[in-house]
Amino acid sequence: MIGFEQDGRIGRLFLQRASHANAFTSEMLGRTAEIMELAPGESDVIVIHAVGDDFSLGRDREEPKNPGGPYAAFSEISRVNAAFAAFPGIVVTAIKGRAFGFGLGVAMRSDIAIAADDARFMLDEVSLGFPPMFLMEVILEHLPPKRALDLILSSREFGAAEALDIGLVSRLVSADKLEAEVDEFVETLIGRDPDVLKSCKAYLKAVNQMPASARPNYALVEQARFALDHH
Fold first, then answer.
1. What is Dmax (Cα atoms) for the chain?
2. Residue 33: which residues within 8 A CB-CB, separation 6 or more?
3. Is the pTM of this model over 0.85?
4. What's the confidence (pLDDT) of residue 48?
5. Where are the domains of the chain?
6. Closest to 45 measured CA to CA, from 176, 193, 172
7. Mind listing the pLDDT tens digit for each residue in 187-199?
């Protein structure tokens, strides 16, 4: 249900449960975490594709409960999230159809999210009776609190244009050109120096967590460090 192909320094992860709109089972979570944990040694770019009409409806709500209880069940999600956070390269998602719940969370944890202009999004957890704490952990990296709470508490479905406007996706393309656009962008990335790509990602993550007054000196130190290490 999770496929993977290695193409040089590009790793391609495929969500392959189209009959269930790519809803994630525990097995799929485990395989995704395993791929992402091994990726730093093999890939500079990971691309996440979806088979079928939808990116993902999130977690499979019909799967039997984990016999280990809630902590064990949620640990599966935590492992995936940690693997995404630890990957130093660039993660690109190709989003089509519906990206709900954990599916939208995958898009938020990617570095670049390219979406079809008719894609649909929803954070549906509150309507299902529980707070989406894993999503709330990361959503404030994208949205101010009032915008985030609107989406979380209402569980309303929204379109690709709004997702782009509020910063949940990087760009929109027509649905029939999605895969070609993603492939073209990935080829551009692979043509760049991978150390530069990784440094840009790491730097943005670091400065986002520090006060504005500390950023100029940090920029000076890190720019000089990179120059010494690479030139």
1. 55
2. 76, 79, 80, 82, 83
3. yes
4. 98
5. 2-189, 193-230
6. 193
7. 999 999 999 999 9
